[in-house]
Amino acid sequence: MTTLQVLECITNHSNVTSYEMIYDSNNNINIPRYAVVEVLNDSEKMYHYFHFNERTGAFSMRTFTSDESLYVNHLMRNRTDLLQDMLNSGTLYKNVRTLLRKANTAVDAQTALWAEKNNDVQLTIKNNDQIKYRKLLAGLQSAAQEEIFPVMLYV
């Protein structure tokens, strides 16, 4: 992405930027090295993460979706200090991915435990009812996320 495209996105949406700036001599402007921008897309909230790539001399963009988006939303609303620290150090994407991997591993383990002990799940396995099994598992996974995410992510 060009510097002007990134600057336009940053100025037109809610954002948090790093303190470190990059000077673009072509456009004679300073622009943050890292930025997180909140974007509403078809009634869905997403977050774009912009970072300046020294090797290519251009900005790269990654989009946080689903669980990543929920966590970045939490950071923007409740932990701006932590979000600012991660942006300043350039570790936001890595930290979000690492924390969510750990949280989702815990969710999967809890879901498996509950599934083993749930009579309805065991009955659907015996009856080979894949549709009902998937629905029950999705419900257990959702319940596990409600229990685990606040403890592991939203603190």
Write up this protein.
- The chain starts with a helix and ends with a helix.
- Helix 2 packs across helix 3 (80-89) and helix 4 packs across helix 6 (130-152).
- By secondary structure, the chain is α+β, with helices and mostly antiparallel strands.
- It has helices at 3-12, 66-78, 80-89, 92-117, 119-126, 130-152; strands at residues 15-17, 21-24, 29-32, 34-41, 44-53, 58-64.
Write the layout of secondary structure elements.
Blueprint: H1 3-12, E1 15-17, E2 21-24, E3 29-32, E4 34-41, E5 44-53, E6 58-64, H2 66-78, H3 80-89, H4 92-117, H5 119-126, H6 130-152
Antiparallel strand pairs: 1-4, 2-3, 4-5, 5-6
Helix pairs in contact: 2-3, 4-6, 5-6
Strand content: 15-25%
According to DSSP, the number of beta strands is 6
End-to-end distance: 34 Å
Helical stretch tally: 6
Give the overall form: elongated
The overall pLDDT, averaged over residues, is 90
The order of strands across the largest sheet is 1-4-5-6
Class from secondary-structure proportions: alpha+beta
User: Are there runs of 5+ residues with pLDDT below 50, and where?
Assistant: none
The ordered string of helix (H) and strand (E) elements is HEEEEEEHHHHH
* Count of individual domains: 2
Biggest beta sheet summary: 4 strands, antiparallel
Rg computed from alpha carbons, rounded to a whole number of angstroms: 20 Å
* Helix content, binned percent: 55-70%
